[in-house]
Amino acid sequence: MVALKHISFTEILDLVYSSACEDYKKDKGITFLKGLNDKHVVSLKSITDNIESFKAVAAVLTTCLLKKIENPQQDIRLHKKVLTGGYSGRTLDTEYVTPFFKKRFRRYAMKESGWLTRSLEQAHAFTLGFPGKIRNISVKSAFLYLLDEVEKGNVKPDKLMQGLFLLLIQKLEHESKELTIISSPTKEDVTINVLIECLKEHFFSRYNVSGASKLPVIALYSIYQVLTLDLPRFKDKKLSPLKSHISADSKAKGVGDIELLTKKGQYFEAIEVKHGIPVDADMVRDAFEKFKKRPIERYYILTTAEPNIKSGSEKEVKEIIEQIKQEHGCEVIVNGLIHSLKYYLRLIPQPGLFVWTYTRNLEAEFKASSEIKEEHMRLWGDILKKRLNR
User: CATH number of the domain that 327 lies in?
Assistant: First the structure.
């Protein structure tokens, strides 16, 4: 730790990460982890095993450890300047830790900072009695215990950080090997009705993790990727890359979840996807705010909810759509996402191509960020085996 405290925050993170990589290459990190206290390893694993739902805890823990390495005299539990003797953990996270995670562990990176999470942002020291309502008791206990152990001098912060990074490297490698086995359907006579049932099961299953709202977006994006290859309407049109959850909405500068552009880079068509939420008048108004100063031919608001439009809002929604058409010229279309998928699948000569595209996009999103979780991937693999593969 003496050697680390005189270098920059970025250099500390990179150096500890490099050491973790070396240990992983040597023997998957087994020797290093055996050198740590068993309870420390169990606590770290509690955080890494649940990191898809508790990215903020990992970011805050890393930030606190980073501060302790840089300044061993600092009580790292005092994570806000308003606390006597405290420091700004959020600033340190925003400037160094979250950018590091986006570079090295993108799937587990926060959008901006772990301190934007309500359960962690309150002005109370991270002592064992911290009142923040971290949903998983095991994760909360592990987080507070590790910080307490550092402050008692029972473990060096750089060793804990290295252990954390090593476990994350292990997790990524394991996921990469386990989840690249999803195959495309071997059944040639795939029907549209069967595909729709597959998608509905994937969208609406009860998951133990967040992120299911992204599944309909990826499915519709996959349809558009196939349609733009042959459909005359989309000739010379470009499909914008699928937006990542890591970019905050205010910084995305787009008009919808899915966007098609003209050769000149102007918006041609856009789609806003809602999952389980009926469309109401306010949603249509909000959509118009996104594109009212830009030329665009069509704007779809598609929802998985049934009915598609909130009960009692049908007339107002229709009136707003007509008003937008008169004022702007854009045709706003509100519809059911499942109904739209059925229609689009009829336009595809080989429905199996959509399944292949959707599967590849799921894999890409899973590797790129933590919005798509291992549970989503495994269920899709099970659905393919059960319904489409012989």
Answer: 3.40.1350
